[in-house]
Design a protein that fits this description.
The complex is a heterodimer of chains A (about 210) and B (about 300).
Chain A (H helix, E strand, L loop, with lengths): L6 H9 L3 H23 L2 H17 L12 H13 L1 H7 L1 H5 L14 H18 L4 H12 L4 H8 L3 H22 L29
Helix pairs in contact in A: 1-2, 2-3, 2-4, 2-7, 3-4, 4-5, 4-9, 8-9, 8-10, 9-10
Chain B lengths: L15 H14 L31 H9 L14 E6 L2 E6 L6 H10 L3 E9 L7 E5 L4 E10 L5 E9 L5 E9 L29 H10 L3 E10 L5 E5 L10 E9 L2 E7 L6 H9 L17
Parallel strand pairs in B: 3-7, 8-11
Antiparallel strand pairs in B: 1-2, 2-6, 4-7, 5-6, 8-9, 10-11
Helix pairs in contact in B: 1-2
The chains are: A mainly alpha (about 210), B alpha+beta (about 300).
Chain lengths: ~210, ~300
């Protein structure tokens, strides 16, 4: 590829007021953030909203960041983890901004594979039955290193830890998960609806145009 | 994905990438009135659905969303309610269309607020053409901003805004396709069977009128008009909008064109002699243009 600006360059331009540069960062990383959020929530719709919150929050804090590497993704996933830890409060913090979101289409696009997305949610909820029994730090490190495929170095940036700590925590998390799934075998069930979501917050990946409470 | 238990990664649903991006950029350039609430702080319980009070735009969810969502940012009057808003990108200004259903005047005024004399018109088009630039003139210093996650049925880019050289002082006209309202005839169309259109994937060419009617009805689409394409042996022809009782169900369909949301026009190749009234219309229209410059139908004398 010829002369594509790095995230670090784009970030500097964005800080200087070039909003389009931040749009390019969104283009590059929204999908990764979206999927990371899905794997932590088992809800595509929730993941979509949280993705918006992550970028809004990243922009709000843009002055604090000077990407140490070419890719801003580790830092964005770190922001995502912060948002996911306090997702209800984070969404409340950006409520006005989310309220200004243009209308979402009333008509699902067949290309969006609605049935497949629902299957994904069932599958992911079954996985989270076990994973959510781990300490939060273990959940985060598994989701970054195993599911999002971040390197130890990048996970260290996302988590604000040293690389050595990432390695040892990941190793410990794997052992714990193995033990959990062994003790769990035969009784693993999908979380009942409502367990993974607050009442009233469960909705399909493509929402109908109705009022939310 | 390294864990087989985890679902495969997916893109955001159609058009949502562009919508979320446009929203983000609108918020970035929105005049700051108050900082985001810190987690846990109290605030009034005003809660308005993001969907409340907004017109549902039927058809072409992806492309509509791309256009509808796309614009917010303002060089001058930058508010989320602006129909067109502008942001700076080095030597260019990026204009985004926030409200593709905004009136002509409002669009032009918003462009003026950004410092440009651009006459932007939005015309109703069939779903797969929504978001496309139907016509553009006078603007060599104007380029489109395309949604990277979108392609039209024909594989073309989906413009979601304009990229204009800063300091552009000329006059330009840009006609952009927007979703049609219910019952509103299209100004520009793709074929009805193209991806995203009302009869996507339906094969009607060469079918009899009766067969095509059945297939179209199964898709809950109605036939607004029957266009019977008569022609004389010399090549001259006439497309006659004919009422259904005068159509022979055994005539063949050559194509189906979108007419309005949920409505199509059947293009028909008739059989049998050309009716006298049609013949008169064809002959009244004069000779066909000759294929060879300078030649005439009676050349040789």
């Amino acid at each position: 590829m010829d002369n594509l600006p790095t995230d670090a360059e784009l970030w500097r331009r964005a800080v200087d007021g070039d909003t389009e540069a931040f749009g390019v960062i969104f283009d590059r990383h929204a999908r990764a953030v979206y999927n990371h959020c899905f794997r932590r929530t088992a809800d595509w719709s929730e993941a979509e909203d949280i993705t918006s919150v992550v970028f809004l929050e990243a922009w709000r804090r843009h002055g604090e960041l000077s990407p140490e590497r070419d890719s801003a993704l580790p830092w964005l996933l770190g922001v995502a983890n912060n948002v996911l830890r306090n997702r209800y409060r984070a969404k409340r913090s950006h409520r006005d901004a989310l309220d200004r979101m243009p209308a979402l289409s009333a008509e699902p696009d067949p290309a969006d594979d609605i049935a497949g997305r629902i299957d994904d949610e069932h599958q992911m909820r079954r996985v989270l039955v076990a994973v959510n029994r781990l300490p939060l730090a273990d959940q985060e490190i598994l989701s970054l290193c195993v599911w999002a495929g971040l390197s130890y170095d990048d996970a260290a940036i996302a988590l604000g830890l040293s690389v050595g700590t990432v390695r040892s925590r990941l190793s410990r998390a794997r052992v714990r998960l193995r033990e959990l799934t062994a003790s769990f075998r035969g009784e693993a069930r999908e979380l009942p609806a409502g367990t993974a979501h607050r009442p009233g917050e469960r909705h399909t990946a493509l929402r109908p145009p109705v009022e939310e409470s | 994905m390294t864990d087989p238990l985890i679902p495969e990664e997916r893109d955001l649903p159609s058009g949502r990438h562009a919508l979320r991006k446009a929203h983000l950029m609108a918020e970035m350039t929105r005049p700051v009135t108050s900082p985001p609430q810190e987690p846990g702080s109290a605030r009034p319980s005003r809660r308005r659905s993001r969907l409340a009070g907004r017109p549902a735009i039927a058809a072409a969810a992806a492309a509509v969303a791309a256009v509808a969502a796309t614009v917010v940012t303002g060089q001058n009057a930058s508010t989320a309610q602006a129909a067109v808003t502008c942001s700076k990108d080095h030597d260019y200004v990026v204009a985004r269309i926030m409200d593709p259903l905004a009136g002509h005047e409002r669009l032009r005024n918003d462009f003026r607020a950004c410092g440009f004399d651009i006459d932007l018109k939005l015309v109703p088009v069939s779903p797969s053409v929504v978001g496309s630039i139907v016509m553009m003139e006078g603007g060599q210093k104007i380029d489109t901003v395309d949604d990277p996650s979108c392609r039209t049925a024909s594989g073309a880019q989906c413009p979601i805004g304009l990229r204009i050289e800063a300091g552009f002082t000329g006059k330009a006209t840009v006609v952009l396709g927007r979703a049609a309202r219910s019952g509103e005839p299209y100004a520009s169309t793709n074929t009805s069977t193209a991806k995203g259109e009302a009869l996507e994937g339906v094969s009607v060419e060469g079918r009899t009128v009766a067969e095509a009617e059945t297939m179209i009805a199964q898709r809950h689409v109605t036939i607004a008009r029957y266009n019977v394409q008569w022609s004389l042996p010399d090549g001259r022809g006439y497309g006659d909008l004919t009422s259904r009782p005068k159509i022979d169900p055994a005539w063949r369909v050559t194509s189906v064109e979108p007419y309005a949301p949920g409505q199509v026009v059947l293009m028909i190749d008739p059989a049998g002699p050309v009716p006298s009234d049609i013949r008169q219309k064809i002959e009244g229209a004069g000779a066909p243009p000759s294929a060879v410059p300078g030649a005439t139908a009676t050349s040789g004398s």
